[in-house]
Amino acid sequence: MNQPNPAPEQAGSPLESRYRRLLRAYPGAYQADRGDEIVGTYLDTIEPGRRWPSPHDALDLLGAGLRERLRGYGALGLAAAFPLAATAALNTLIAVATFLLLQVEFEDPRFARLDPVGPVQTLGAVIWLGWLLVGLTATALPGSWTRTAAAGGLLLTVAVPPVAALIGQPGPPLFVLLPAAALGLATLALPSHPGWVARSLPLLTAGCITAASVAFSAAENGGNMFTSYSSTPELLAMAGGLMFTLVLLVGLGRALRADDTGLWATLLLATPAGLFGADQLSQAIWGTSGGGPTPAAFATTTGSILLAGAALLAAALAGQAARHRTVRRRVLDEACPTCGHRPEVTAEA
């Protein structure tokens, strides 16, 4: 098969070099075998005058490279798990955003001893409204529009706190922002063509949380249990645990049908789920100071959760890769005694 070479005007250009740098996402052998073909195909489809790969091309190359590496580990289930984890992450963010808006941000700022930011307690309301908009986009315009909106939601989550500090306005605490940012990062892998169930979940989630919030307020009979972010750590820890449990149950159900996608999604969401409980865990391990953990204790606990989540995922991937190599060796050793033919080995072996 003839491999297309880069267009003459692009050969050796900075644009070609940038595409080749993106190819490093692929395994080395794959780059050597098909690198010229891939780069040539992309360069043949771009408009004249472009100097940088488009964001779509960059994400496409990085995603395909990751899938090819996972194929070599026999872990394509992990690649397939990203959209499932993203869907769970988005709906968790919508649930948290709806609750915090209704129960905290729209409460009287005097309860939190804060100067109000207009009709809300903090600039965090911008973050939560942003994620509700992402949920609406996921229902009405799934695919690239939703992923673009999710990138905007993640940008808001990261940018609002320093902006709030810069202009002297209150913002949400770190024990809320860190898991929100982790979940926001996961939403970048939202599926391109979700089914009607996935598309209806954001509105259903927001509606259920709104109804529960109204019912809770009525049950309080004028009480004010959730009046500021400092009154929500326990509930956020429960939200993280519930998200993890639901995804695990889905994973176990799929595992009964020989589909490990849900179990990989559970591993991907273990770290965000743990971050939801970082405040409570810090207090349980290190004690409290002024009603909450010290910054050093919270940083230590958060770092430990991040390391544990990464180690858990790496261990699962290493175990799958070892199993994959063992199966490949066993299959390749089973040559036909008559003709010496060796069977083909699939990536999922």
Can you characterise this structure?
- This protein is mainly alpha-helical and 349 residues long.
- It has twelve helices and no strands.
- Keywords: Membrane, Transmembrane, Transmembrane helix.
- The chain crosses the membrane at residues 76-102, 122-141, 148-167, 173-190, 197-216, 236-256, 263-286, 298-319.
SSE topology:
Blueprint: H1 14-22, H2 28-45, H3 55-73, H4 76-105, H5 124-140, H6 144-167, H7 174-186, H8 196-220, H9 233-255, H10 261-276, H11 278-286, H12 295-333
Helix pairs in contact: 1-2, 4-5, 4-7, 4-8, 4-9, 4-10, 5-6, 5-8, 6-7, 7-10, 9-10, 10-12, 11-12
How far the N terminus sits from the C terminus, by CA atoms, comes to 27 Å
Report the oligomer.
Answer: single chain
Give the count of structural domains.
2
> Which term fits the overall shape?
globular
- Please outline the major beta sheet: none
Helical content class:
55-70%
Low-confidence stretches: 345-349
Key attributes of the depicted protein:
single chain; 349 residues; mainly alpha; 2 domains; 12 helices; 69% helix
In short:
Keywords: Membrane, Transmembrane, Transmembrane helix. The protein is mostly helical.
